[in-house]
Amino acid sequence: MALRVLGLNLIKNNINLLQNACRINATSTTQAPYCNQVTVHAAPAAVQKQKVSKAMKAYLERARENDEFMKTQDLDFQIGKRHLANMMGADPETFTQQDIDDAISYLFPSGLFDKRARPAMKSPDEVFPARKAAEFDETGRPFHSMFYTGKPNFFQLLHDIVEETNKLYDLEERMLRRGNKPDENQKIEMAGFQMLPKDQLEVKLVETIADIEYSNFVSSMERLIASPFSYKSKNFIERYLKPLIDQSKQLEVPKPKIDEQGRQYITTYECLRKTARADVTVRMPGTGKININGKDISYFDVEQCREQLLFPLQFSGLLGKVDVEANVAGGGSSGQSGAIRWGIAMSLRSFVDQEMIESMRLAGLLTRDYRRRERKKFGQEGARRKYTWKKR
Amino acid sequence: MKMFRKHVGSISRISTQLQRGPPTVGSIAGLSTEAEAAPKQERVDEKITEFRTAITNPGGHSPLQIAKFYTIPAEEKKRIFGGGGLPKQYELQIKTFTEACLMVRSPALELLQYIKQADLSKPVVRYVLYGENGVGKSLTMAHVLHYGALHDFLLVHVPWAPNWMKRPKETANATGQEGFIDLPFDAAAWLVHFKTQNAQLLQKLQLKTSKDYVWSKRESTPTGSLLTELVEHGIARIKYASETIAAVISELKQLSTAGQCKVMVAIDGFNAFFHPETRIFSDNKQRVTPDRITLTQPFLNITNYDWTNGVCILSVDKIAMTEGYMESYMPRYLLGKDGFEHLDPFVPVHVDNYTDKEFTNYISYYVDRFWITKTAPDLEDQLKFMSNKNPYTLMQLVRGL
Amino acid sequence: MLKRALIYGKFRTNGIYGSFENGTRWSRLMSMYPPHYAEPIFKKDSQNMEKYELAKLSHVPIKAALNSSSDTIFNAELKQKMLAYIVKCGNSRLARELLTKTFEQIKRAQIERKHLVKQDNGHAICIDAEKLLIQAIENSRPLLQLSSIKRGGVKYQVPVPLTSKKSYFYAMKWILDAAKEKDRKISLSSKLAWEILDAAHGQGRVIKKKNDLHRLCENNRAYAHYRWS
C-alpha cells in the first residue's frame, strides 16, 4: 500500500535513504541543524498498527544501527580520551582536542607529507560525515513538505529567501506610503564578507548542490541584500555570509625595542625571496645609513637592486630618517635585494601609522614573495616551453 | 648673507685641513685676509649662481670655493687636455653642456696648498692620489694640472698610463736596448701632447740641451739645440720617439735642477708601471712585463727624488691594473713591493666621495644645465641613497633621468 | 595541472640560512599566486582611488610588488614596458643599460638643439627623455589593424579596431624593430634614440608605417561590415 501511495519515486527515494540514513545526534545540533532525532515513536498509535513495508523496515533498521554505531563510537572516543590523558599525565576533565592532537603527534610521530594521512584521534562527528536524520516516518510519509524535490533543505532555503524578500518589499511599500526612508547607518556592509562558498553551504545543508543551483542561491541572496531594508533581515542573512579576514590587520605590528644608545629598533628575521635569506634591523632616529653584510649600499652594484632597497624607504617617507642593517646570505643579487626590501618594509610598519601600512600593503611591499622556480617537466623543454611541434 | 653664513660654516673645515698640511705662518694669515675678502667675493658669486665661482685661475681657489664650479676657458682646455687628461664621459659632458666646468674639491685644494707652499729647492715631493673607483682622482689631477699650466710649470703629463700597457697602437722591438719593446706611435703621440701643452713656455724659456744625442749614423742632435727641436725630432722620426722621450725627460731633470724651469709631473694610473704583466706580447708570444717597455723607463726616472724644482703628482687606481680584480684601493697594495719602494717616501692624498654640500651643488648644476629633467620633492635624497654620493655612480644614474 | 598554485603556508627551516636545500626537494612549491590575489598598486598616486574600491581591496590579499617596480624617480610605467620588450634571454640588466644610454643620447641631442635655438623659443624643445618616449609611442599607436576574414571563399582584409594594450604593444614593437633594422655597427641605443626622436616629432619610419596601415584600413572601409556578417 505504501508503495502505491508513493509511486515510482519510492525506488529512487530508497536509494536516497541508503545515503541519508538517520542517526541520533543529540550533542551537536548546531553543526547540522537539519539533523533531527529519529522519531520512531512519533507516529500515532493508530498508524503504528499499519503494515510497514520491508524496505521501510530495512531503512529504519539501518538508521537505528547507525545511531547506535555513532553512540558506541562516541563512547569509545571519550574513554580513549581519558586513557590518553592518563598516559600523558594530564587532567582527563580538561583534556582538549588540541591536547589530543599534540599527544598523538608525540606518541605516533609520522613523516608523511599529507597531514590528513597521519595518525589522528578525532571526535566521531568530525570523522564520520554528517548525515541527515529520518526524512520520513515508518509509514513512508515524509516530514518535510519539499521532500520530493530531492533536496528539501536547499529548496526550503530558497523559499525562505523569497519569503524574506517579499516581506521586505511589503515593508518598503508601507514605508514609502508613510514617507519613511531606510536608515542608512544600519545598512549591511558587504565589504568584509563574501557569500558562503558552495562546499560550506553543502556541509551546512547536508545536501549536494549543483553549480547552477548554487548560483541561483547566490543571486537570490544578493537581491535580498540589495533591498534597502535588508538590515531588518540581518540575522537571516548573516547565517549565510562568511567574513573575510581584514588583510592589513591580520599581522600584528611588533613594538620597537630600545638598544644601548637609546634608539628604537626592530629586527625582522627570516626575510625570504627565492633562495636568499636575510634579517634586517631598522633603527629609528637615524641618518639614512645602509649596512649590508658590513658594506654600505655599494654591496649591490646593480642599479635595480639599489632601487629595490630605496622603494620602501621612499614610499613611507622615512628615507633619511632611519638606519638599516642587514645580514643576507644565499641567492643572487635580485633575490637578496628582494629579501631585504621585504625586511625593511615589515620593520617600517612599527614606525608608521595604520594608513601608511595599508598603503604599503596595497603597493605589494608587505606580501612575502613565496614564488619559487617552477620545475621542469618531462616531455617538455622547460617548465612551460614545449618541444618544437613537428608535423611529421 | 645666507651664503656668507655658509662660508663661515666651512671655516671649521679649513682649520682641520691646515692641521694636516705643513703649517706656515703665511697660510694662517691668509685665512684672515680671506675672511675679509669674502664679502667682495660673495657679491661676485651671487651674480652668477650659488654653485659657481668666477675665479677661473686655480691659484685663486681657496676653501671658500669648495663645492663650487669654475669654468676652464676653451683655449686653455684645448691646450692642456688636448691629448687626454679628462675622462671620456666628462669630455662628452663638456660638449653637451657647452662649458668645461670643474668642481673645486678639498683633495685638489689640499694638493694645491702643498704645491704653493713647497720649497722647490728641496728634492721633488711625490704626491699620490688614491681612492675608490669613480671618486674623482683624474679630475683632481686635471685641476692641479690647470694650475700648473697657468703658473709656468712645464707639464709632463701622462693622461692614462695603462693605455700604453693595454692598448698600444703598435709595438716594435727597441733598436737601442736588447729585449725591450718600443711603442712608437704612442711615444710620438705623447710628444705631440707635450709640445701642445708647453708650446708657449718652451718658446719663452728657450731651453737648450746639454748633451749630444746620436740617433744613427746620419742623425744626431747636437748639444745646445733647443728642446723643442728635440721634441720635433721625436715626432718626425717615430722610430726614435721612445728614445727621444728618454732624452727629453733627462734633459728636463737637469734643467729644472739647474733652476731654469719648474716641472710638474702628472701621471694618471701610475701603478700600471708596476703591475706584473701587460697585454703586450713579445715576439715569442709571451706577455711582457712593464719594465721591458721603453716608455716606462723615463717616467720611472722622473718620479725619482734625485732632482729639484719640481712637483710630482701621481694617481693609483684599481682599474689601471691590466687583469684581475683588485680588492683594495690602497697605494701599497696597488703599487706592489717594487712600486712602493720606488715611490717611498710619498705624500698620500685621499680622494673621497662627495660631501653633502658638493652633492647638492652637483645636482643643482645638472638641473641648471638641463641634464636632470625630473622634478620630485625628494629627488636629491633618492639620488644620494642610490649613488652613495659616489661621483661616477651619480653620473651614471643621472643619464637616464 | 602540474602548476599547482598553493596558498603559501608556513615555511619550515631548520636554521635561518642554509637549510633551504632540503626544502627544495618538496615538489609542491608555488610558482604562481592563487587566482584571488590582486595586483599591487605600487605608485602612490594611483592609490588615490574611491573609498569603496579601497574597501574592496582591504579584504583581498595583494601580490608582492615585482623587483622591477617601484615608486622612485627611476621607474615609469611605459618605460618598464619598453624595457620588457628590449630584454633578450632574460638579460634585463643589459636592457636597462641600453635604455639608459638611449635616454642619454636623446637628452644630448635635445640639449644641443636647445642651445642652437636659444634665441627664439628655448622652451618649446622638450628635453625630458621619458616624455619624448611617451610622445613617440602615442604618435605611433595604430588604432585599427587589418585582419583577414574569410567570407564566401574569399579572404578579405577587414579593418578591425585594436585594444589599447595591443596598440601600445605595436607602437613599441615597431619602434624597436625600426631601430634594430639599421646598420649593425651603430649601437642599438643610438638608433633607438633617433627613432624615438623622430616618432616624437611625427616623422620617421614608424609614423610612416602607422600611416600606411591607417591608409590601408581606410581603403578597405567597404569590408568593415564583414566583421559581423
From TrEMBL, chain A:
Entries under SUPFAM superfamilies matching the protein: Ribosomal protein S5 domain 2-like
Source organism: Drosophila lebanonensis (Fruit fly)
Lineage, opening ranks: Eukaryota, Metazoa, Ecdysozoa, Arthropoda, Hexapoda
GO biological process: translation
GO terms of molecular function: RNA binding; structural constituent of ribosome
InterPro entries: Ribosomal_Su5_D2-typ_SF, Ribosomal_uS9, Ribsml_uS5_D2-typ_fold_subgr
Protein name: Small ribosomal subunit protein uS9m
Record family assignment: Belongs to the universal ribosomal protein uS9 family.
Location of the protein in the cell: Mitochondrion
Cellular component terms (Gene Ontology): mitochondrial inner membrane; mitochondrial small ribosomal subunit
Parts forming coiled coils: none
Keywords: Mitochondrion, Ribonucleoprotein, Ribosomal protein, Transit peptide
TrEMBL record, chain B:
Protein name: Small ribosomal subunit protein mS29
Organism in which the protein naturally occurs: Drosophila lebanonensis
Alphabetical list of PANTHER family matching this protein: MITOCHONDRIAL 28S RIBOSOMAL PROTEIN S29, SMALL RIBOSOMAL SUBUNIT PROTEIN MS29
Gene: LOC115633837
Keyword flag Mitochondrion: yes
Keyword Ribonucleoprotein recorded: yes
InterPro entries documented for this protein: Ribosomal_mS29, Ribosomal_mS29_met
Keyword annotations from UniProtKB, A to Z: Mitochondrion, Ribonucleoprotein, Ribosomal protein, Transit peptide
GO molecular function, one term: structural constituent of ribosome
GO-annotated biological processes: apoptotic process
Location relative to the cell: Mitochondrion
GO cellular component terms given for this protein: mitochondrial small ribosomal subunit
Family note: Belongs to the mitochondrion-specific ribosomal protein mS29 family.
UniProtKB/TrEMBL annotation, chain C:
Residue ranges annotated for the Small ribosomal subunit protein uS7 domain, each copy included: 69-221
GO CC field: ribonucleoprotein complex; ribosome
InterPro entries: Ribosomal_uS7 (IPR000235), Ribosomal_uS7_dom (IPR023798), Ribosomal_uS7_dom_sf (IPR036823)
Superkingdom of the source species: Eukaryota
GO biological process per UniProt: translation
Pfam family membership, one: Ribosomal_S7
Keywords from the UniProt entry: Ribonucleoprotein, Ribosomal protein
UniProt family annotation: Belongs to the universal ribosomal protein uS7 family.
Protein name: 28S ribosomal protein S7, mitochondrial
Organism: Drosophila lebanonensis
